[in-house]
């Protein structure tokens, strides 16, 4: 099994209490792990398989945290879809599908298994490698920037309303932005933001030189629109193809910069959507 010590696999497979799961595929992966799919796989020491993985998060009988990567992506996808619909689903991956058992959790998980000790990292001697852990919020960096973009994508209507409430005038070139007031929402207009112009230029460059797999992703949105996500060195962009975009930068901690519609943005978003990876 790739990326793990045999003792660690045995420990994780021994009465693993599954708490939740997520997908690690070119179209859907925890963005906290990287700007693209190969980078996210590398963060877990996994090769970037074409079909991806399912990541199962659980505790062993001693309460230790484990992240188990399986190659049965369909099984994990069905479990996630069932849970999202409020249905029960017993996710029990076959041992033959286990690719790696990694100590710790790379994500914040708020639940715990009943009847076992509180979640804690496994004994390093058994785990064979340092435990995974989610990023903290004490400092701002690439992981926090990507998590911020995730939040905007999930709460699009809320963030869009804040732009409207700020009464930001529409720019005439599609590249103006508004200074953000931290994670609380956008603030006053500030045309010609240098960082935003750089992001839009780098995003346009993806049209000529395709980026690593998963660097641009497209997901469902209401109506005929798509939710578009693009990442690059030091930046994240999240947009609706029929609306505006938001940019987050490593060099501007906590700032959310709206990019209003203008004449250029619609064409850029449409072109990016054509090259984006989509969920199957």
TrEMBL record:
What segment(s) does the record annotate as region Disordered?
116-143, 165-195
Question: Biased composition, Low complexity: where in the chain?
Answer: 165-180
What is this protein's name? Membrane protein
